[in-house]
Amino acid sequence: MKDGILLIDKPANMTSFGVVARVRRVLSQQQGKKVKVGHTGTLDPFATGLMILVIGQECKNAGSYSKLDKIYEATIRLGQTSTTGDPEGEIIDISNRVPTKLEINKTLTEFTGEITQRPPIYSAIKINGQRAYKLARKGEKVEMPERKVMVYVIELIDYTYPNIKIRVNVSSGTYIRSLAEDIGTKLGVGAYCSQLRRISIADWNVGSAQENYLNLD
Q1: Active-site residue 182, yes or no?
Q2: CATH 3.40.50.2300 fits 4-67+203-215, yes or no
Q3: What pTM, to 2 d.p., does this model score?
Q4: Could you state, in chain order, the average pLDDT of each consecutive group of 10 residues for the chain (217 residues)?
Q5: Could you tell me which CATH class the domain 70-201 is placed in?
């Protein structure tokens, strides 16, 4: 493969940087020379789904892909919180109250449109030149600035307590982990994102990704 993009369906329990490293290694072996590979936006290790990798000269255009809208499917676990906002953190019991489906739908509508959210401290955002998650792992206090993001649509796919499954169409920069936590706070029961899958980036869909390319799973 020469310059261009490569669509990958990232498996769970692999970092985005790990995906890039493996693709780089295999392409370099195939071509007999070092191949430049980059990503256009990370996915958390627990998450799965679409990643757009840029190859060769296309790496210089990585920024144009990272600003695109995205669609995710997420499972939000009610009644508990996580120190990382996902299954990898310390899970803390908050409430055993069971919200009604009416409450769920009403709350979801309140997170549609332009919203303000605070990204998780365990994220790849740089704070004073360092990744926030690296500072957090060192036990340092991390102040994450709030940001405005756009949530175009939230669709409730299923609600079987304690799990809410949603499909959400969002602008670049939106953190679904933060959205899950904010929904839990609004409901008064706590929540974290237990599963996350990126379905699409702009017009690129995970169905077109090469799931088994490079034997990523």
Answers
A1: no
A2: no
A3: 0.88
A4: 86 92 89 91 92 94 92 98 92 97 98 90 61 59 79 98 98 94 97 98 90 50
A5: alpha beta
